[in-house]
Amino acid sequence: MGERTTITTDDGAFSAYVARPKAASAPAVVVIQEIFGVNQVMRDVTDGLAGQGYLAICPDLFWRIEPGVDITDQSEAEWKKAFALMNAFDVDAGVKDIAATLAAIRKDPGCSGKAGVVGFCLGGLLAFLTATRTDSDASVAYYGVGIESRVAEAEKLAQPLMLHIAEEDQFTPKAAQAVILQALKDHPMIEIHTYPGCDHAFARLGGEHYNDEAAKLANGRTLQFFGKHLG
């Protein structure tokens, strides 16, 4: 369903997976990867958004470390590699690459103008930072890791942001969740949803902690949010 494109920046070029909707012109959504690269899960998310009428693009944000990472969450070796990639990853450079992706997809003939982002895990943190640092029209973060140490950045937020928080997230413990909720729950541009009984990556289809009910609820909220702010 998808195609590959190349995005060029001052630091170099990187690839991205693009899925196009049936409509000739549509709002765009940048899909921000987990720690497993632009893998089948991320391509499926991108394809799914195209099926919902969005011009969707998933950039290879690990390109500075190792281009073309495409691994799963199904083996210990892949998990080990994924954490090594995450630890080597430059978050600030990643946000700049997302900004470049937003700029590139807005110039695509198939983009109607507005563009937002949705990110998962590491991508959830990046979606939060993209919301505060770029011109994304609407941003969604699923179980972002490390947001609690960046909440002060919300002062710069000018466009709407939605956060999905798993209440039993092993990578965002209760104390971290409390910091996020206390700092952000009254922000006029932020909508927060928490999911009782859910662990990290509850929306990753095929993952160990996948929760069908919660995933459908979160994904429905995301589509409604994008429909309101990108349509």
Description:
By secondary structure, the protein is α/β, with parallel strands linked by helices. The chain has one domain (3-230): Rossmann fold, CATH 3.40.50. 36% of the residues lie in helices and 23% in strands. The protein has helices at 40-51, 76-88, 91-107, 122-133, 174-184, 212-230; strands spanning 3-9, 12-19, 26-32, 55-59, 111-120, 139-142, 161-166, 190-195. An 8-stranded mixed beta sheet has the order 1-2-4-3-5-6-7-8, with helices on both faces. α3 (91-107) crosses α4 (122-133).
Oligomer: single chain
Question: Beta fraction of the residues?
Answer: 15-25%
**What's the main sheet like?**
8 strands, mixed
CATH H-level superfamily: Alpha/Beta hydrolase fold, catalytic domain
Question: What are the secondary-structure elements, in order, as H or E?
Answer: EEEHEHHEHEEHEH
Average residue pLDDT:
97
* Spatial extent as radius of gyration: 16 Å
**Strand sequence of the main sheet, in spatial order?**
1-2-4-3-5-6-7-8
**CATH fold-type name:** Rossmann fold
The CATH first-level class comes to Alpha Beta
Overall geometric form: globular
What structural class do helix, strand and pairing data support?
A: alpha/beta
**Number of E-state strands:** 8
